[in-house]
Design goal:
Length: 79
């Protein structure tokens, strides 16, 4: 597997996680502010989605960091 594609996939994962977080937080804000009453089920679902997004961003960032570390090691070996 190409290191460049690993970095690209990591950035894609971060982007998707951020989009998911934005959507979930929007659901939370609209449910509570517009209706002044939100179902517990909808709120819980949005909170779970927000947590999933957080984990996805963190994991993708770790993948990007590891790919960078591998590139650094390869450069050190060839130098």
């Amino acid at each position: 597997m190409d290191i460049g594609s690993v970095n690209q996939n990591a950035l894609l994962g971060i982007s998707r996680g951020l989009n998911q977080a934005s959507t979930a937080s929007g659901k939370l804000a609209s449910a509570e502010q517009l209706n002044n009453e939100s179902s517990t089920k909808d709120t819980a679902k949005a909170l779970v989605e927000l947590q999933q997004a957080s984990v996805q961003v963190q994991t993708s960032a770790k993948v990007a960091q590891t790919a960078g570390d591998v590139i650094g090691s390869i450069i050190d070996i060839h130098a």
